[in-house]
Write a structure and sequence with these properties.
Blueprint lengths: L1 E6 L1 H10 L1 E6 L8 H14 L2 H10 L2 H8 L2 E9 L5 H7 L5 E6 H8 L5 E7 L4 H13 L2 H16 L3 H26 L12 E9 L7 E4 L5 E8 L2 H4 E6 L5 H14 L5 E4 L8
Parallel strand pairs: 9-10
Antiparallel strand pairs: 1-4, 2-3, 2-8, 3-6, 4-9, 5-6, 7-8
Helix pairs in contact: 3-8, 4-9, 7-9, 8-9
Length: 280
């Protein structure tokens, strides 16, 4: 899967020089309303449809959701589907910078077997109508599970044998966990339409807090201390091309070319943005 990561010159140098990519703690994302936005949209959707509201009421369990998520720290790396976006250049490259073409499957392959670390990719959905349809479909797909859960609840109350009791309880718990996990995954895909120009694809890393604590820290330009994790990748297999900001000059191209020759055995495509732009 081809994706594009916009970054500053400093960011580019750090990524290529170390063959590592930083994933930032979810609490420091650029959209502070992400989870609350998804929760509000789900609530509004439930109000308008009694059938899915009943299924949700039957299976949603905040305690189970917190139990599932609490042991993990979540870290995110964002990419774009757009290889040449003026909005992305201006926002993430701070008026100058670079866009790295990543082969995301290679990055995932390199990190998929790390113990106590789970990686998932999500295509972000911005269109609210599509978001609502996704919510409805997910909940409706659990209609039979909801009926099974209700029947299991009745059976649990009437069972006499201890072994059978725990067996029924286990089945109930599995339905609850499966529903809440799928709902959480969907929430990670929903974002306010104001951000749709990003065309985001994201990697979400779930790191087991007490088994694999590899957090590092940096200070951003606003003085905020941000925690992140770094994941390795194979440079030649993962980075496929680099493009330069619309304002870049020949000297930027020369500096990058010299650096690339030093880091890559094979030739790497270097291009400049095709967007006509100048500072006035």
């Amino acid at each position: 899967m081809k994706t594009y990561h916009y970054t500053s010159g400093e960011g580019l140098f750090g990524i290529l020089n170390s063959s590592k990519l930083r994933l930032t703690n979810q609490n420091f994302l650029n959209d502070p309303s992400e989870i609350s936005y998804a929760n509000q949209l789900i609530l509004e959707t439930l109000k308008e449809n009694k059938e899915i509201n009943d299924i949700h009421s039957s299976l949603f369990n905040e305690s189970a959701l917190n139990t599932m998520i609490a042991p993990f720290d979540l870290y995110i790396a964002s990419f774009s589907k757009n290889p040449d976006s003026l909005d992305m250049w201006n926002y993430y490259s701070k008026g100058n910078g670079y866009c790295i073409e990543f082969e995301l499957n290679e990055f995932l392959k390199n990190n998929i077997s790390i113990e106590n670390l789970s990686l998932q990719t999500f295509d972000i959905i911005y269109n609210q109508e599509e978001q609502i349809e996704k919510i409805k479909k997910l909940i409706t797909d659990f209609s039979d599970d909801s009926k099974e859960y209700e029947q299991l609840t009745i059976n649990v109350q009437n069972v006499g044998e201890e072994t059978e009791y725990y067996n029924l309880e286990y089945k109930r718990d599995q339905i609850i966990l499966r529903f809440n996990e799928e709902l959480w995954k969907l929430k990670m895909q929903l974002k306010n339409k104001a951000y749709e120009r990003e065309q985001e694809v994201r990697i979400v890393a779930s790191e087991l807090k007490y088994e694999r604590n590899t957090s590092e820290y940096r200070v951003n330009s606003s003085g905020l201390i941000i925690d992140f994790i770094s994941l390795n990748f194979e440079l030649e297999k993962t980075v496929k091309s680099i493009s330069l900001h619309p304002l870049s000059g020949e000297i930027h191209h020369l500096g990058l070319s010299n650096f690339i020759q030093n880091k890559f055995k094979n030739k790497l495509s270097i291009t400049k943005s095709k967007i006509p732009f100048r500072e006035i």
